[in-house]
């Protein structure tokens, strides 16, 4: 992970100074990193004496972030034209306005700053940004901004940022030998009061019983492709109706399937509606799944990406397998 330069920190600090009010948001279907990043940005605003509103399209499906939902709104507060001129929009953990989801309000024309770490992130015209794919989580970028602008971390923000960092790194499982700076940053969070054991329990515990049944169903439906290098599983709309959509444990699913001998990549496709599917891709080190996701209009990281597309399971899965056959 690269350390933010003084110029990058000054760029964000100046953005804060230039505005009187802030809208803070991130991608739809939030995960721990985007929620912690937004709350970390909010902490910077509070320390800077700047009012703000937290926005998220939701839904807050993940058990570990559900308690944070009341802090966010789906409706942007009304702003007069004069207020809009003095308002800054900060987008965390994504760079595409389309990925913000359905938030009631008009972001058009707002001065915008993007904070992201995704490899496939692009920068919309006219937006300021700090986009660093070397950071394993956007929360890491927020930590460096907090330390550079505010200074010493307090316990509340340390716990929040450690949570975000832990979710996106698979509790540090996805880090490699070039991650020393990440561990130094996480050590500062622990020194400030973040509790690794409590964070792990918060992320992995409290799963509804039916999610265990669904996990078994998804493992049963898994099939091997590409000479044993690819495993694909799927969730039908009937599966969702039977087992529910709350507290899904896709992280455990990926972990179990990737641990299979010879497997280099895993695909999980879910039929969301009659005509739309979402898909998640995970891989071991050498396989770049972001390229496959991007070919369908999705994106993400080299080893963890996803997409949302029109289609049905029976036609989409063969298309995905063809893409993977070219890189495995």
TrEMBL record:
Signal peptide: none annotated. It comes from the Bacteria. Residues 233-322 form the DHHA1 domain. GO terms for molecular function: nucleic acid binding. Residues 23-150 form the DDH domain. InterPro entries: DDH_dom, DHH_sf, DHHA1_dom, Oligoribo/pAp-PDE_c-di-AMP_PDE. Pfam families: DHH, DHHA1. This is Bifunctional oligoribonuclease/PAP phosphatase NrnA. It comes from Treponema parvum.
């Amino acid at each position: 992970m690269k350390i933010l330069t003084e110029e990058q920190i000054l760029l964000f600090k100046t953005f804060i100074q230039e505005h009187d009010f802030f809208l803070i948001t991130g991608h739809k279907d939030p995960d721990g990193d985007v929620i912690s990043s937004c709350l970390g940005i909010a902490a910077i605003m509070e320390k800077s004496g700047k009012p703000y509103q937290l926005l998220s399209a939701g839904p807050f499906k993940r058990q570990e972030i559900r308690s944070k939902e009341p802090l966010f709104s789906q409706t942007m507060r009304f702003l007069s034209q004069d207020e809009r001129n003095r308002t800054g929009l900060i987008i965390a953990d994504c760079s595409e306005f389309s990925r913000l989801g359905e938030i009631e309000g008009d972001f058009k024309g707002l001065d915008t700053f993007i904070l992201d770490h995704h490899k496939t992130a692009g920068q919309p015209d006219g937006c300021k940004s700090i986009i660093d794919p070397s950071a394993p989580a956007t929360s890491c970028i927020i930590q460096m901004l907090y330390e550079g602008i505010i200074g010493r971390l307090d316990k509340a923000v340390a716990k929040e940022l450690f949570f975000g960092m832990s979710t996106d790194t698979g509790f540090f499982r996805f880090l490699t030998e070039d991650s020393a700076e990440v561990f130094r940053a996480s050590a500062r969070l622990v020194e400030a009061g973040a509790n690794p054991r409590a964070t792990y329990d918060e992320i992995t515990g409290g799963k509804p019983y039916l999610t265990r049944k669904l996990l078994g169903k998804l493992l049963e439906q898994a099939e091997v492709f590409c000479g044993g290098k690819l495993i694909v599983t799927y969730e039908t709309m009937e599966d969702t109706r039977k087992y529910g959509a709350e507290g899904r444990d896709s992280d455990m699913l990926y972990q179990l399937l990737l641990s299979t001998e010879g497997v280099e990549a895993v695909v999980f496709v879910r039929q969301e509606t009659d005509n739309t599917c979402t898909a998640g891709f995970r891989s071991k080190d050498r396989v770049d799944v972001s390229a496959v996701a991007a070919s369908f209009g999705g994106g993400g990281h080299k080893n963890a990406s996803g997409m949302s597309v029109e289609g049905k399971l029976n036609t989409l899965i063969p298309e995905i397998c063809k893409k993977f056959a070219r890189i495995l």
